[in-house]
Amino acid sequence: MPLYTKTFISEQKGYGMVASAAIPQGTLLLSKVPLFTFLSNTVQLQSLSNQATKQNAFLGLHNAQVKPYSTLPPFLGICGTNCFGLGVPAVESGVFKESSRFNHSCIPNANHTWNFKSREMEIRAIKDIEQGAEITICYLSTKESLQPHRVRQVILQQRYRFLCNCPALNNTIGNGILITTNLSRALQHCKRVIGLLSLVGQEEQLKCGYYDAFQIAIAYGDQSRASTFMKLYVKYLTTEKTALLSRVGMTREKGSIGFEEWLWMRAEK
Questions:
Q1: pLDDT, tens digit, for every residue of 136-149?
Q2: In what order do the strands lie in the sheet with 83-85?
Q3: Cα–Cα distances in Å, from 37 out to 84, 109, 153?
Q4: Edge-to-edge strand list for the sheet holding 28-32
Q5: What sign does the CA torsion over 155, 158, 160, 161 have?
Q6: What does 229-244 look like in DSSP terms, one character per residue?
Q7: Which of 15, 46, 91, 236 is the most exposed, fewest CB within 10 Å of its CB?
Q8: C-alpha pair distances (Å), 236 with each of 78, 99, 123
């Protein structure tokens, strides 16, 4: 039995992938080679020549770059709408038949990564997914996903011609509203962002999440956790790290028993 099926979601989102059964966190959902990879527009067009099956699969993908929004020809429009960067930093991109069918969420329940060894795109569940729930991935880069609400909306609208209504866009720390109206939810958002960044190996970006969590702890008046979040923030700085670490104390040690439960106790469940 397949883990997911292509299902009509809504008029706005069209079709998407829906879990056919309960999917545990960490499950490999997909591992596929691209239809083609490219470094330039010339390469991407040449790679489709004389391959009718791949051409049909490629032309069946959605093109968000159509008139009057774009002057790109159809082939380039489809590439721009559906390509994935292959690795971090990405020096080449790829277009995939099935991976492109997963819809976007700024708080996804799955994550896509490029396996350099097998040359395949892998999509894994990053949290438990209930049967009947839509499986989503994030279309934005790590840097883009940490931008404020309005910035992310502009990126999604220009690149994909849709507006995202997921909770992260309506309730984010970056828009300055959530942190003043719902501290526990804001802290939960920090926890999710940090977890996602850790999962995909983007440790250089963890400082942003820990600094936001530090600000929330200060708003709570929770000095012990604020101190701990600041120590974790400083840990991922690349300059003046040693001097700062010596001046910032941590009330509990990361990795000790019960540390994560204590640290995120105030986050919304």
A1: 988 887 677 766 66
A2: 36-38, 93-95, 83-85
A3: 9, 26, 28
A4: 28-32, 120-125, 110-115
A5: positive
A6: HHHHHHHT-SSSHHHH
A7: 91
A8: 38, 32, 27
**SS3 assignment, position 265:** coil
Place of tokens 């040449």: 46
- As given in the structure block, the two tokens for residue 144 are 């883009």
Q: What are the distances in angstroms from CA 72 to CA 42, 49, 63, 96?
A: 14, 19, 10, 20
Do residues 251 and 228 touch, judged by C-beta distance below 8 A?
yes
Structure tokens at 7: 């299902």
Give yes or no for a contact between 171 and 185, defined as CB atoms under 8 angstroms apart: yes
Find out whether 191 and 203 touch, Cβ atoms under 8 Å: no
Higher-confidence residue of 59 and 112: namely: 112
**Per 3-state DSSP, what percentage of the chain is helix, strand, and coil (rounded to 5)?**
40, 15, 40
Chain Cα centroid distance, residue 216: 23
What distance in Å separates the CA atoms of residue 231 and residue 251, rounded to the nearest whole number?
Answer: 10
* Chain segment 172-195, per-residue pLDDT in tens: 454 455 565 677 877 887 887 787
* Cα–Cα distance, 62 to 16 (Å, whole number): 12
Compute and round to an integer the Cα radius of gyration of the chain: 21
Residue with tokens 């080449």, as numbered in its chain: 92
Sign of CA dihedral 116, 119, 121, 123: negative
The pair of structure tokens assigned to 225 is 């956790």
pTM check: above 0.70: no
